[in-house]
Amino acid sequence: MTELRTLKVALLGCGNVGAQVARILIDDAGTLAPRTGARLELAGIAVRNLDAERDVDLPRDLFTTDGETLVKEADLVIELMGGIEPARSLILSAIQNGASVVTGNKALLAADGPALYEEADKAGVELSYEAAVAGAIPILRPIRDSLSGDRITRVLGIVNGTTNFILDQMDSTGAQFADALAEAQRLGYAEADPTADVEGHDAAAKAAILASLSFHTRFDLENVYCEGITRVSAADIAAAKEAGFVIKLLAIAEKITATGTETAGNEGVSVRVHPTLLPREHPLAAVRGAFNAVFVEAENAGELMFYGQGAGGTPTASAVLGDLVSAARRIVLGGPGRIESTTGHVPALPIDAATTSYYIGLDVADQPGVLAKIAQLFAEHGVSIEIMRQTIHRDADSNVESAELRIVTHRASEAALAATVEAVKALDVINSVTSVLRVEGA
Amino acid sequence: MTELRTLKVALLGCGNVGAQVARILIDDAGTLAPRTGARLELAGIAVRNLDAERDVDLPRDLFTTDGETLVKEADLVIELMGGIEPARSLILSAIQNGASVVTGNKALLAADGPALYEEADKAGVELSYEAAVAGAIPILRPIRDSLSGDRITRVLGIVNGTTNFILDQMDSTGAQFADALAEAQRLGYAEADPTADVEGHDAAAKAAILASLSFHTRFDLENVYCEGITRVSAADIAAAKEAGFVIKLLAIAEKITATGTETAGNEGVSVRVHPTLLPREHPLAAVRGAFNAVFVEAENAGELMFYGQGAGGTPTASAVLGDLVSAARRIVLGGPGRIESTTGHVPALPIDAATTSYYIGLDVADQPGVLAKIAQLFAEHGVSIEIMRQTIHRDADSNVESAELRIVTHRASEAALAATVEAVKALDVINSVTSVLRVEGA
């Protein structure tokens, strides 16, 4: 066996994921060395508080509060501190020092990715971030490398385990959102302040990253339309279920081409996060609990799906280590880091330019001619109806009848749909619009 | 826009996949160039017969019968001829000439992969073969790169679309194997001579490649136990269905560790292909028709699944082009090709060392004490029973009763199971052993 060189690894942050990365680097050193072509030596761990409790028992002498000095001695830097500063400055310092960087910091990438990628390119080092989207699931590397000769047309991702757990609970138990959220908090799937998850902000940052790699163009958070799951009711879920659908919070990045008059002048990419109906037979519909999955449609490859654990210290550490070993192999071989494939200038489109099918629930007066009136109004707005179903309820006590109307449309633009809904609301036969939800995968 | 350099691409073979690769290289040249960092120029296509019919209309002057000369002028060579020779000689010639090679030739890789990888390493060029396993699905690169910091413990793959289509037909329509095969042939999913597919040979070659990358050790066809689907009956499928299972032909590569006495001295990797029962709720159970999927279990990442189209000219061309663009990017950046991660020396184990659960169907005499006798015999052989269910049938005409016994065992070794089945057969209360099938994913 030839003598292997040693590469020094600096770890910034030692939370949930960081502690597992440190454990694996120490415990699996013997396994990682031959497949890397170098010994990966954990040179130190920078933390804010030396005395904090850790998930894993690690040697005390590895810890330091001086990240800046640690980074300067490293061949490879792993940033798992989260937040913008000091993560950003330490990453820049590492890159300028010639170290390759692995990060899972989606907030930083969504906020300031382009500047970081540019610095890495200039320095000829790798900046990789598989852990930032969908935890353990290899999705960024397949999009960047395996699909580099194809044209991705659409990405649909369940990329937030918290919201998928909540929606799955609501679907399987009939619970209301607030109760399902409480259950998720009790089980540790949701944080005490669940805003970033349930309002879709976490998924939106991931959508921006997925869209950037899929469409070879930099998109940031401002390009992402974002709607969370707080307004999804048990009634919505039940109605969807009855109609053969399941409601998922999807991160969507989709190429829009000008085929119809509605979208003329609107060629580009729609990046969005919103609750979405999926047919129960769609591969994404079977993604239960806190699991994640990303469904990719490409012109040549067709439909692909990547499925696995989207969070958790150990699974996410697997993604970090995959990036680390790949970057280390590149250092061993010599030559600069990877080429970035962000070469395009595809415009990001507003949500109005997206076209999907819609599910619309209406509480209507039980009178003759109501269906015809509504159908006529949809037609006037250029929105074609695929399915229309009316259910009559009779209140046993009052003997008053009410009617519920459920409509699934063909693909229509957001703008056309919004105008239709406004017009429907104004009809005297309409008591209320109970839900408007987008449908994908039908 | 800076002037891009041109890389010459030689294509060997112009069948189903090759013709689509040529089409994409020509039609998408403008898209591929900026994301590659070089213009990819299709310099020529080597074929046996210049006048053969092609799936795609391609410029006549690209075609040549002189593969050897074509290869010598190329920076990148795509081999899609299939078979051992002249594919092998042309690939070696390309490598020695400093060209990176992309191939989808699983037969060649299974037969002579190690010699080819070694030559590529020596020459500092890339030899990539994503298209050889599971068509369009990015699976080899994720295993090689994304999971390089993890330890894979098990891979379960539906990697042959023909057999998955046949089994799915049998499952959904109740058809016998012969009828489902005929339907697959009629629809073009099975070839006139379906041996390579239905006997599991195609899946076995893919299993060897998956095992080699997953366990960092070279395994070849001789290390793979192979059992096809020709003996799977409609009755097997129906019984499995009733018990909540679906039968799939799985390519399995599994790490076996010596935890029990049964497997002592048998540490290593079991690589095998056989019809397998899967619980209907397992993610692989939902893979229908001719689709492929690979389910990967790793120590840190947990469970992952990769799903998509496993065959077809255009989907497979996507995988070829992903490899091509990645190899071209590396040439543009300079520096040698990828490091190979085949560094281990894990032994390949015979099928006897594998442990799985088993489903056993028995036609037994309807007498008191039969169940106890059989249970006793299983216990004596160290095979633990998880579920035992007896169904009594009464023939309306003869009024003769017969009993059917269905047993699902806990995990047991092949050897223990085989001994148990032999002993069961010898019991006087047994009319016949109607099926013995392995169960995974329970």
UniProtKB/TrEMBL annotation, chains A, B:
Key words, A-Z: Amino-acid biosynthesis, Methionine biosynthesis, NADP, Oxidoreductase, Sodium, Threonine biosynthesis
Residue sites binding L-homoserine per the record: 191
Binding of NADPH, residues: 106
Binding site for NADP(+): 12-19
Protein name: Homoserine dehydrogenase
InterPro entries (alphabetical): ACT-like_dom_sf, ACT_dom, Asp/hSer_DH_NAD-bd, HDH, HDH_cat, HDH_CS, NAD(P)-bd_dom_sf
Functional summary from the UniProt entry: Catalyzes the conversion of L-aspartate-beta-semialdehyde (L-Asa) to L-homoserine (L-Hse), the third step in the biosynthesis of threonine and methionine from aspartate.
Residue numbers annotated as active site: 206
SUPFAM superfamilies on file: ACT-like (SSF55021), Glyceraldehyde-3-phosphate dehydrogenase-like, C-terminal domain (SSF55347), NAD(P)-binding Rossmann-fold domains (SSF51735)
Family: Belongs to the homoserine dehydrogenase family.
Pfam family, one: ACT
